[in-house]
Design a protein that fits this description.
This protein has 14 helices and 13 strands. It is α/β, with parallel strands linked by helices. β5 and β6 form a beta hairpin. The protein starts with 11 loop residues before the first helix and ends with a helix.
Length: 393
Amino acid sequence: MFENLQQQKPDAILTLVQMFRDDRRCDKIDLGVGVYKDSSGNTPVMRSVKAAEQKLWELETTKSYVALTGDPAFSDSMVSLVLGDAVPAASVSAAATPGGTGAVRQAFELVKMARPSARVFVSNPTWPNHLSILEYLGMEKVLYRYFDNETCGVDFNGLIADLKTAHKGDLVLLHGCCHNPTGANLTMLQWQELIAVLQETGAVPMIDIAYQGFGDGLEEDAAATRAVAAAVPECLIAASCSKNFGIYRERTGILMMIANDTETKVAQGTLAFLNRQNFSFPPDHGARLVTMILNDTHLRADWAVELEEIRLSMLALRQQLAKELQERGGSDRFAFIAQHRGMFSRLGTTPAVVQKLRDEHSIYMVGDSRMNIAGLNSRTVPILAQAIITSCL
């Protein structure tokens, strides 16, 4: 049996992580893995999370299973955080999942079950795991234009033209905010035009929102997701708590499904069924912490303050890097970095330049020139800026 197994293609980001670990140079900079780091290079446990864990340790009396779709209080809290009052609560079904990746996988499984012939429109580029999961499931994917390598912004005309070719029952995968891997986002006016295309074609939107609070603020980052959900009859939303609560290893995510009120009972049952087939009961520890934080006035306030500190620190690094590049290069070629949002920016350089940065300057970023802004600090920004200018000349 096992002799028939074939070597799988290695994950590019995980390969980069190992290369960084093996590098013995003391001045190396890791801009590859998508994890927030503070100015000391650590990924801290947020104050509110520590406080919630202490409280949970004191109050928890059992480790028994919760439910196939997780604790309803977690679902209610996350639906409120992401959607606000954009849609009637009765139209939303939800299920806890192992991280945002689990939510994405369950969403694709759901679409495949509901409409096996559905095509999935995916931005070019997108998070590589989107494509990997779709390929594994044997689902047809269609790339739509998104990133303009010349301007390092959104190719909006190309995006609209490509999405107009979607049909009723196709799925359109969108990034709710802080586009990964580019950092380039749509404006609200552009979102409204995109929504009109979805209404015209009848394609179903699926929104992956993994960075709420990392871009322009908690409410601001949810605005596009809420606008889409309110404007169409059906919608899928995969949300992650890894970044904005800093609980990466707790694997805390949720899949939301918006449908006709009369279909919600079937929808909720289907989500429970899919959970049962894939992992049975979802993990609860991270979900429990998130629920406690969002439903405690003091914990929520402290969480919001610390999240805003994280957001502003990344924004300051963006502005510093754009300024350093402008001063060293004598042009505004890299001004887009200050306009991008979230953890990532895509420089728009070639793989050869990325390799040169790694070989000659011990700076590690993904081959498509995606870099994690949160991997920088005020000391390393000038080093990176000089390396980019040197390598791009």
